[in-house]
Structures are given as structure tokens and as C-alpha cells.
Design goal:
Layout (H helix, E strand, L loop, with lengths): L9 H8 L4 H12 L6 H15 L2 H14 L13 H5 L3 H8 L2 H8 L14 H16 L3 E4 L2 E4 L6 H4 L4 H20 L19
Antiparallel strand pairs: 1-2
């Protein structure tokens, strides 16, 4: 049943809650939330209704379907992904890169994220073994600063495995992986590893 919010023209409610492009919806919501001529009570009610709609099952499924269509035909390659729809419908190379993160794997083991579950239905030990190889491929020779000194770790692996990613590829994957880690650690909003647009819960490493 629809809930009518009063105190301003009905047109603004229609604009705010109709199903449009996600970025447009968010821009519209912010515009009305920041208007000084609206009462605090009204802005609070708009925020609560907006949050309830965004977390409803029907909205999440509709959004997931829209995002899937938006990402049909994406090439399977290493590339930086930032938008939530790109992350949720990442191709295999980027899914493997994201799942190679210890933080992401730990969250999946605790069942706090979906972790691209359709692609990882085998035993967790096999997931960890494969993800560990991808982790080594990405982090091999990566320079890190510790106690004022620079260190680089070299991992042993087959030549073909070692040559899988170029330096540019590894940089793209690392940037994406760290972005996903920040989202998971924040524990709010949408699960970046769920093609069904599940919600995140609090994560404590």
C-alpha cells in the first residue's frame, strides 16, 4: 500500500520514488532532502521511506535485473570497477581478483556477503586454494612500506601463472579490490559481491 507524504507537491514524491536510473534517483532524493524550505520532519520521513523502498525485496530484485542488463556484453578482462552495478556483475577475471582478498574471503566464510555464490559452489578449501593463487599473481613483487623501509615479496609459481596479469592489470584489480574491502568493512548499503543485490551487514575483522 502506498504511503502519501504531505507537506509539498505530490510531483516531488513521484520524482523521488519512481524507478529511474539509480544515480538520478539519488540526485533527486538529495535535492529534496537539502531544500531549506521543507520541514525537518518531512525530510526525515522522505529519508525513512526512501530507505525502506531501497531495502525492500521487490526493489532489490528489480534493481538487480536492471543492473544485469546494463552490464551484458562486458568484456572479461582486468579493469577498475567502481560502480556497484559493475561490481555485482563483474566478469570472471574481476570476480577472481575481488575474491582473492583475505578480507572478502573472511566475510564470505562468515556468510556476511554473497561472495558471487553462483560461481563458488564448491568447497571453501578449494575456493581458498584458487583465491590464494590469484592473490599471489596479483601481489607478486608488490612493493610495500613497513617501519620506514620498503619490502617486496616474491611468490613461487609456474611461469604461465606468473605472467597471467600485466602490471597495469594488477593495478586495476588492486584498486577495485580495495574499494570492495572498504564497502564490506563499512557494513552498510548493497553487497558488492551479490548479483541479486543483497544488503550488507556489519563486518568485524
Amino acid at each position: 500500500m502506498a504511503k502519501i507524504l504531505r507537506g509539498v507537491s505530490e510531483a516531488c514524491i513521484t520524482d523521488t520514488f519512481s524507478f529511474h536510473d539509480e544515480e538520478r534517483v539519488e540526485r533527486t532524493r538529495k535535492r529534496y532532502m537539502e531544500r531549506s524550505n521543507l520541514s525537518d520532519a518531512f525530510r526525515d520521513r522522505v529519508g525513512k521511506v526512501h530507505d525502506r523502498i531501497r531495502t525492500s525485496y521487490a526493489y532489490r530484485i528489480a534493481t538487480a535485473a536492471s543492473r544485469k542488463l546494463r552490464n551484458v556484453g562486458r568484456e572479461d578482462r582486468a579493469e577498475q570497477l567502481y560502480r556497484i552495478d559493475q561490481l555485482q556483475h563483474a566478469r570472471r577475471t574481476m570476480r577472481e581478483g575481488i575474491m582473492s582478498s583475505p578480507i572478502v574471503r573472511q566475510a564470505r566464510a562468515r556468510r556476511m556477503i554473497d561472495g558471487f555464490s553462483d560461481d563458488y559452489k564448491w568447497r571453501d578449501t578449494m575456493i581458498n586454494d584458487h583465491s590464494e593463487l590469484v592473490y599471489r599473481q596479483i601481489n607478486n613483487g608488490l612493493m610495500q612500506a613497513e617501519n620506514g623501509k620498503n619490502y617486496a615479496t616474491t611468490y613461487w609459481m609456474d611461469k604461465e601463472d606468473a605472467k597471467r596479469f600485466t602490471d597495469f592489470d594488477r593495478g586495476e584489480i588492486l584498486l577495485t579490490r580495495r574499494h570492495v574491502e572498504r564497502l564490506i568493512l563499512k557494513g552498510e548499503g548493497e553487497d558488492p559481491t551479490s548479483k541479486y543485490n543483497a544488503c550488507l551487514t556489519g563486518f568485524y575483522p
